[in-house]
Specification:
Helices cover about 35% and strands about 20% of the residues. The protein is of the alpha+beta class and about 675 residues long. The protein has six domains: about 60 residues, Helix hairpin bin (Helix Hairpins); about 230 residues, D-amino Acid Aminotransferase, Chain A, domain 1, CATH 3.30.470; about 80 residues, OB fold (Dihydrolipoamide Acetyltransferase, E2P); about 70 residues, DNA polymerase, domain 1; about 70 residues, DNA polymerase, domain 1; about 70 residues, BRCT domain (Rossmann fold). The strands form five sheets. Strands 12, 13, 14, 15, 16, 17 and 18 form a seven-stranded antiparallel sheet that branches. The chain has a five-stranded mixed sheet with strand order 2-11-10-3-9. The structure holds 2-(butylsulfanyl)adenosine (IVH).
């Protein structure tokens, strides 16, 4: 049948382009051409459903998993590596290797050196060329079957060249790119959820979701670094094997090196110390391993570690400082987060004076108290955290000198209402929905740039409006009078007028911004845009059932449930009614897909020479998607796009912690919004 052959050819072609794009980072066709291929394949498969096979690129996202993952026993245990933290320990490892190989001259022992990725180890099994199983490491002997989730990683081939091996199990590390981690945390915070502490936790969370469609959105990636077993095994060295994995189109890391002797392996430790910080994934060290498979066999392993490999771990940047106070912050959803106020200290190039303590359990586990000297660390150079308390010595060692253990407040620090900790959660929440602290946070979110975009409504103004009782909900903003605002502290007549006109202007912000602004849990900017495009009016959305919502791509049960509960609640209905009476636009304006552009509300700065498009083209494209391009970097800048030989702006962006995109990342952002 012709169609079958066409489908096979298309699958091969798409597979080839996936490999170029996701593994080699060098696509040879445009995204439009790629989409055309995929669309053509979908059409053919729809017309010939019998020809749909599991290795088709259309079949990456499959069915959901019920409740829990199945256990899998690893045919070959997944060992871990012994850690070393300094050159002496690595040298000692080399001495043990020499001792274990008495008949081998030192100068013929080669080492393969690789980056040690900070993610999660997984095993992928291929039978007759087809990916049949993907599992977590678990305890090394037994893991969980997460095949459906791993299939969504676009750099994992669903099919490999069958002529090579009948059965092969490859192993690798799944990770979340730093940029994706930042994006997800921004989104989570906007949705009133606790941010992930580091990319590793974020990746772990995404891998264990029961719905692969959501995993697919998290942009996880993987590097393959070893094989569990392969039949047959014609290889003599690890390096040779890696080269074969590369040919088979597995994502093998390009920084892998073969060292002819131990000294050159040692030299790489220094070589990568700073370089790793420029990579888009977390690297916490190097793996140094004997190259010859025969030597490995001779050296053997202990029950936990191979004797032929060792991990060298780079030290995370740490500093010692004092906990001046522990305060509790009330978030938009009432979550109460303990935060350490620190004696300011310099770490990884920026001054840190606060660190989140996450939650009650974390403080208890680490026994952190006011006045303690603590070690703080920048996890993945991103969020500072308190690692441990330094044991007090000398005079301070007397127990009386130490402050009492920290206790979470039993009432909300802002409104004194009761706080509640749901059984299955780690956070306490203030139960009073009229809590002024929550209200202030909700108003900040409501007026923020990506929501209703009300200029001049800063934290100080919000503070006064709430404390004086003038504003009790969003709709109260729209009845404020100029003289009322002018009577606030530090508010000149002119600024009062500016604020009032900004408030009036925001009435026309449109449905997508309004939906985002309302602060429904799990409904961030992207979901709000999606909903607004689809439903066009809040009224229609209110009348839509849970079942209908749940069926929409990218929505799913969690968002549908949260949205429905929000819209059905009496107080929210009344508030929406009031907003409507005060003239807030509840429809999405403009032609369907073009309005509420993907980059709506985002500010960009372009720097350096771009190659794919001219700067002017890039600017126009960004603007056509609703984004803004400015020439100077400020705190308001969301992204800096850096071409080649970008100058001082790059440094400034790094200083301010603004994400830096290369052209490829910009292109992706413009196509998918993330
Ligand atoms: S080789 C016998 N190579 O580190 C184990 N492991 O502590 C051979 N890891 O469980 C592992 N990057 O999750 C190897 N390039 C790399 C690695 C790597 C990260 C992880 C892996 C392993 C852990 C060992």
């Amino acid at each position: 049948m012709m169609a079958r052959q066409d489908i096979e050819d298309l699958k091969q072609t798409i597979h080839h382009h996936d490999h170029l794009y996701y593994v080699k980072n060098s696509p040879s066709i445009s995204d439009q051409e790629y989409d055309r291929l995929l669309r053509r394949l979908r059409e053919l498969e729809t017309a010939h459903p019998k020809c749909v096979t599991p290795d088709s690129p259309t079949q990456r996202v499959g069915g959901k998993v019920d409740e829990r993952f199945k256990a899998v026993v690893h045919p070959v245990p997944m060992l871990s590596l012994d850690n070393t933290y300094n050159v002496d320990e690595v040298w000692a490892f080399h001495q043990r290797v020499l001792k274990g190989l008495p008949d081998v001259p030192e100068d013929s022992i080669e080492y393969a050196v690789e980056l040690k990725f900070d993610g999660l180890a997984v095993a992928l099994t291929y039978e007759n060329g087809l990916l049949v199983r993907g599992a977590t490491r678990g305890d090394g002997l037994q893991g969980e079957d997460i095949t459906a989730n791993l299939r969504t990683l676009r750099s994992i081939p669903l099919k490999i060249d069958t002529e090579s091996f009948k059965r092969i199990e490859v192993r690798g590390e799944v990770y979340m790119p730093k940029k994706e981690f930042e994006r997800i945390n921004v989104e989570r915070e906007a949705e009133g959820e606790a941010p992930f502490a580091n990319p590793r936790n974020a990746a772990a969370g995404a891998l264990r979701l029961l719905d692969p469609a959501i995993t697919a959105q998290r942009k996880l990636d993987i590097f393959i670094y070893a094989v569990g077993f392969l039949e047959p095994n014609p290889f003599k060295t690890h390096y040779e094997l890696q080269e074969k994995l590369d040919v088979l189109r597995f994502p093998v890391n390009k920084h892998n090196r073969l060292c002819k002797n131990f000294e050159s392996a040692l030299a790489l430790i220094e070589g990568f110390r700073d370089k790793r910080k420029e990579l888009d994934y977390e690297v916490d060290g190097l793996v140094i391993q004997v190259n010859s498979l025969a030597h490995r066999k001779k050296l053997g392993e202990t029950s936990k570690f191979p004797r032929w490999a060792v991990a060298y771990k780079y030290e995370a940047e740490q500093a010692v400082t004092e906990i001046m106070d522990i305060v509790c912050q009330v978030g938009r959803t009432g979550s109460i987060t303990p935060v350490a106020e620190l004696k300011p200290v310099l770490i990884s190039g920026s001054t840190v004076s606060r660190a989140t303590l996450h939650n009650e359990d974390e403080i208890k586990r680490k026994d952190i108290r006011v006045g303690d000297q603590v070690v703080i660390e920048k996890a993945g150079e991103i969020i500072p955290k308190v690692i441990r308390v330094i044991e007090p010595s000398g005079e301070q060692a007397q127990p009386a000198k130490r402050a009492r253990p920290f206790k979470m407040p039993t009432t909300c620090p802002e409104c004194q209402s009761l706080v509640h900790r749901p059984e299955d959660e780690a956070v306490w929440r203030c139960v009073n929905s009229a809590c002024p602290a929550q209200l202030k946070e909700r108003l900040k979110h409501f007026s923020s740039r990506k929501a209703m975009d009300i200029d001049h409504l800063g934290p100080a103004v919000i503070e006064q409006l709430v404390d004086s009782g003038r504003v009790k909900n969003f709709s109260d903003l729209y009845t404020l009078k100029t003289d009322e605002v002018a009577s606030l502290e530090r508010m000149a007549d002119k600024s009062a007028q500016n604020l009032i006109s900004a408030i009036v202007k925001s009435k026309l912000a449109g449905l997508s911004r309004l939906l985002h602004a309302l602060g429904v849990r799990h409904v961030g900017q992207r979901t709000a845009i999606l909903l607004a495009r689809k439903f066009r009016s809040l009224k229609i959305l209110q009348e839509t059932s849970y079942d209908e919502l749940e069926k929409i791509d990218e929505i799913g049960p969690v968002i549908a449930e949260s949205l429905k509960t929000f819209l059905d609640r009496d107080t929210n209905r009344q508030e929406i009614e009031r907003l409507l009476e005060r003239g807030i636009l509840m429809e999405e304006q403009g032609d369907a897909p073009e309005s509420g552009g993907l980059l709506e509300g985002w500010q960009f700065v372009l720097t350096g020479a771009l190659t794919r498009f001219t700067r002017e083209e890039a600017k126009e494209k960004i603007q056509s998607l609703g984004g803004r391009v400015t020439s100077t970097i400020s705190k308001k800048t969301d992204y800096v796009v850096a071409g080649t030989s970008a100058g001082s702006k790059l440094g400034k962006a790094q200083q301010l912690g603004i994400p830096i995109l290369d052209e490829e990342a910009l292109q992706k952002l413009m196509e998918s919004g993330h």
